[in-house]
User: Fold this.
Amino acid sequence: MSVATTFNSSPKSRQKIPVSRSPQSLVQSNVSFDSYCSSDSSSSNSSVKSVSSRKTVKRNGVKPVKAKVVPTADEVVTEIAPVISKPLKRCDWITPFSDPMYTSFHDEEWGVPVHDDRKLFELLVFSQALAELSWPTILNKRDIFRKLFDNFDPSSIAQFTEKKMLSLKVDGSLLLSEPKLRAVVENAKQVLKVQQEFGSFSSYSWGFVNHKPLRNGFHYARQVPTKTSKAEFMSKDMMQRGFRCVGPTVVYSFMQVAGIVNDHLVTCCRYQECNANVKKDIKPKIEEIERLTKDVENTCLSR
Assistant:
């Protein structure tokens, strides 16, 4: 057997390396030594792969990667395509440039059925004020109106003297024109009379539509009327009772804002919502009618 001799200055440092052994055998020998549990050549090869991979991982400092949990299709859609809210579709007279307070009034109050007497009287006064002021102006002065008119308490306003009425000023000017202020005071007196006769101003007002809101279902703002035959009939009755400044246009505006008629456009988000509010008001309305019926029966029996 031939050997390769390495020369060194010292004879003791001479080493003999067998040449006939192939590099493959050297690797297998080393692997067998490292794994020390291989029994044949196939297991040795397997050990080479496993040891080699372990050494590579350790040398590169790479940690084993854990298996990822694949999200479901619903989760993927939720992450990739979040829900984007679309702008609400409102009546045509509400635009992106409308006064925010006016927009909120449209979204929360206009067309919602009202049965509280004070609230109804407030809305009647506002409907009368529309002849001189716009809705945004009225709403921005709403707190002032409520303060000067004692929160629209008819019994309190009915007691206003001439001096008190003419003191209802804002920045040195009357809140409304003098004829309108006189009408508010006079109408408060008439509301008290109506309450005595019908039990409530609500019962009187809603009686013109058989206690059920009218639904017009218009598609375009140009279709919405400024007055109707119902408003004309109600206006005539109110004037005969002594109410002032209650023409058909004023009365119809009152019917709209009080929810006696639903004039939201059918394309408006509030059209169906106001219709839904009607169902919520059915029970209180029935209870009120039953109470009034009993009062009438008791009055008849006592005579």
The CA atoms of residues 179 and 245 lie 9 Å apart. The radius of gyration is 45 Å. Residues 1-59 have pLDDT under 50 and may be disordered.
